[in-house]
What we know:
Elements: H1 2-20, E1 25-27, E2 30-31, H2 39-42, H3 56-72, H4 75-100, H5 114-132, H6 188-193
Antiparallel strand pairs: 1-2
Transmembrane segments: 50-69, 76-95, 115-134
Region (Disordered): 136-211
Keywords: Membrane, Transmembrane, Transmembrane helix
Amino acid sequence: MIRNVLGSLVALAGAAAAAVSPFRDWYEDRAGLDYRVQDLFGGITDTESAVLGSLLPPFLIAALVALVGVVLRSRLVVAFAGLVVLGLTVLWMVRQGQEANGLTVGGDGSALRDGVALAGAGGLLLLLGAALMPGRRARSRTGRTEPYPAPGPDQPDAWPPTGEPGPPARPSPWPEREADPYAGPGSRDDQETRSYPTRGEWPDRHRPPDA
Length: 211
C-alpha cells in the first residue's frame, strides 16, 4: 500500500514536470513551444512552430497516459509514458547539439535552460514511479469452491473427490440366485415366504415325538 501511494505520487510529479516543460525555455531564450516536432527528426531550424505542431502535444499526451497508468495502477503504462518523455528530450538534445556544434550550460543560463531539466526530470520520475508501484495483483480464487463434477468417461467416480479412480469393486463370494420361472404354490419363492408353525402349534397327530 505504501509503495503504491509513493510510486503514484512520484509518477504524478513526473507527469506534471513533463507537461510544464514545453512552456519553459529550452535553449537560450527559445521555449519548447517554439520547436516543431519534425525538427526532432529533420534537424533544428529557426522556423517558429504553431502550438499544435510544437513539442507541447507529445508531452501533454505522455502526461495524460501517465495519469491513466496511475489510476489503473499499471506499471507498464507509466513506464511507457516515462520512456516517451525521456526519449523526446534526448532526441531534442542530440538535434540541438548538432545544430549548435555542442551543448553548453553557462553560469547565467545562456545555453541549456530549465525546460530541458524539467523534461528530463519528468521522464526519470515517471520511470522511478513505475519501479516503485507494485502494480495490480490478480484476485485470489482460493475462497471459491467449485462443484464436484459428475463422474463420466473423463472423470471417474472416486471418493474423496481427488480426481483419481478408486479401487476396483470386489466380486461377491456368493453366486447370484437365478429366478424361478414357476411362481405358483410349491415354488422356491413360495416356500421361502411360507410361515411354519412352532412346536406348540403342531397338531397331535403330526406332533413330533418329545426328545
